Amino acid sequence: MKMTHMQSLYQLTFLPGVFPVNCYLVEEEDGLTLIDAALPYSAKAILEAAGKIGKPITRILLTHAHGDHVGALDNLKQTLQDVPVYISERDARLLRGDVSLDKTEPDTPIRGGVPKSLKTREDFTLKDGDRAGSLLCISTPGHTPGSMSFLDTRNRTLIAGDALQIRGGIAVSGKVRPLFPFPAMGTWNKQVSIESAEKLTAYDPAILAVGHGRFLPAPAVAMRRAIEAARKH
Predict the structure, then answer these.
(1) Cα separation of 22 and 34, whole Å?
(2) Residue 200 buriedness (CB in 10 A; 0-12 / 13-18 / 19+)
(3) Contacts from 124-130 at CB under 8 Å and sequence distance 24+?
(4) How many C-beta atoms lie closer than 10 Å to residue 47's C-beta?
(5) CB within 8 A of 47, min separation 6: which ones?
(6) How far, in Å, are 134, 149, 187, 203 from residue 211 at the CA level?
(7) Which of 39, 188, 191, 160 is nearest to 99 (CA)?
(8) How would residue 233 be classed by pLDDT, with cut points 50, 70 and 90?
(9) Cα dihedral sign for 54, 59, 63, 64?
(10) Inter-residue contact 94 to 114 (CB < 8 Å)
């Protein structure tokens, strides 16, 4: 596991040279917010990273319910029994393995590794505009119907899950990057993904942090370029 620190955010990267999977620790005055739970074997390294920072994990936020973002959740909860888990109400259904669509949603199949035997359930659900510590919760469907992103209001760091990727070249979820096609392969609806990426640019993030790839400072130009490429595609 590789840990990278930028302002209030710690990026924890598993399999960095092969198939980089990120989760994040956001430092608050009284503790740490864990965003996503990476891969099934990642729990020990996540807990050790929090120990090195020297603060307890006080909440767990999930950007979406794919297996590479919730993989260590059950193992983490064995230690963090009283730490609440947050996810959007829509993607809470995916935690249970429910891939059905609402009548109001585009009729494209939900893709990606939806968990089949996860025991942990959410304690609270999130909606657009909610706050979790210093984080503003932003609804960004597309990769999954209930994907969320989180903006640190102290420094405009944006943790966008798989709404965008940076590994293999920046791209909106659903736009295939040949060097790293996997986020696109797991995307539910490309058009909805573009709309969510456009929404995120309006927040003018200072740093972009995603599920797959390194930090990207001053990402506005690159994000707009990725949106335009997705529109043409």
Answers:
(1) 11
(2) buried
(3) 124/84, 124/85, 124/86, 125/86, 125/87, 125/88, 125/89, 125/92, 126/61, 126/86, 126/87, 126/88, 126/89, 127/88, 127/89
(4) 16
(5) 57, 76, 79
(6) 20, 11, 13, 19
(7) 188
(8) confident
(9) positive
(10) yes
Report the pLDDT averaged over residues 37-65: 98
Q: Which candidate, 199, 203, 193, places its Cα nearest to that of 231?
A: 193
pLDDT of residue 113: 95
pTM above 0.85, yes or no: yes
One-letter amino acid of 165: Q
Give the bridge partners for 118, in sequence order.
none
- Residue 149: pLDDT band (50, 70, 90) is very high
The answer to whether the CB of 179 falls within 8 A of the CB of 168 is yes
CA angle 34–36–40, rounded 5-degree value:
115
Instruction: Say what the pLDDT of residue 32 is.
Output: 98
| Percent above pLDDT 70 for the chain | 100
pLDDT of 225 higher than 90 = yes
- Contact residues for 187 (Cβ-Cβ < 8 A; gap 6+): 111, 112, 142, 143, 162, 173, 174, 193
111-115 average pLDDT score: 95
Tokens 């590789």, residue?
2
Question: Residue 218 corresponds to which tokens in the numbers above?
Answer: 């001053």
Amino acid residing at 56: P
